[in-house]
What does this fold into?
Amino acid sequence: MSVQNFQIIESTLREGEQFVNAFFTQDQKIEIARLLDAFGVEYLELTTPQASPQSERDCIAIAKLGLRAKIVTHTRCTLADVRRAVETGVDGVDVVIGTSSQLREFSHGKSVPEIIRLAEEVFTYLKAQNVEMRFSTEDSLRSDPNDLFAVYEAVDALGINRVGIADTVGIGTPMQVFRLVSELRQRVNADIEFHGHDDTGCAIANAHAALEAGATHVDTSVLGIGERNGITSLGGLIARLYAIDPALVRKYNLPLLVELDQRIAELVEVDIPFNNYITGYAAFTHKAGIHAKAILNNPSTYEVLCPEDFGMKRYINIAHRLTGWNAVRSRADQLGLKLSDAQVKHITNEIKILSDEHPLTLDDVDALLRNENHRRPERSQQPITVKA
Ligand code: HCA
Ligand code: CU
It folds into this structure.
């Protein structure tokens, strides 16, 4: 199935707060919430008010902002927790409980029938409160599918809005996620949410597989921050979907992504990784001469993401031994220099020879080109030197 309508449940303010370096103040949370809302995510998920008095005040404050996004908070599957969540004024409650044998034995210690009984109690209460209700099973990928489906079918019968699959330990593969979501799609009427950790590098692919199998909601965080090495990143999911069809993500304010990534990186004191989707330092940098030539003719030859759509610029690196004369010509034109093809080819050779000796900068290359511009074309075959 191709990806249909989907919505993002942005969890930077919940899962993201579980990142080792995240200590958001209320003002910072409000700033992040506003930015994400301006970007256009459909939901903001907040840390449970049960976590601390400040977390409760943060829920109340963000629920009051009147944002376009729905505000949901995350809770354990207990009456006390969901009551407190509702009292903060949020639009919905994301209830979670572990279903894997590991978590049933070593975390909350409850059997599957007990989990179903608790869920019934919690959702009977929530239904009367008129809030959106989601139920998710922690560690779904290591849970016995019979247990999972028994629990999901029971909560679906209570008329909840969404059921969630959580790959809590990042162990799932796209094929496994696809099969699990496909089977669940046959069994419940509720919407299906996917939450995937990135321990083994599959978080984005798994989220995409979930959408292909009929999931309707995906959890993300900015830069993927979360517990351990985090979850599906907002920018990564956007890149994945854009590459299928830009129309899938046109509903979001794409140029805001870079501001979001930069701001979160700053707040949690990390650099944006060089290889980050869309906003990484090298995401739109082309190097080899063969690539550069084709990119200059038509960027789609080596780009599936159009940098301009994200307010970014492509960059062609020409100061190295893999360079090609077409890219050097383009730089000469940019600098307004009138060089013949023979001159540009000569400089390209010089760049290759010099960069075998030591790394060059763009300034070095520009100096070579400008020097050449002052020579008469017929002298261009003579060796030239650059100042270090
Ligand atoms: C966690 C909980 C969770 C919850 C996901 C969900 C997970 O272990 O911190 O509510 O769907 O990864 O299982 O983030
Ligand atoms: Cu998680």
Remarks:
- The mean pLDDT is 95.
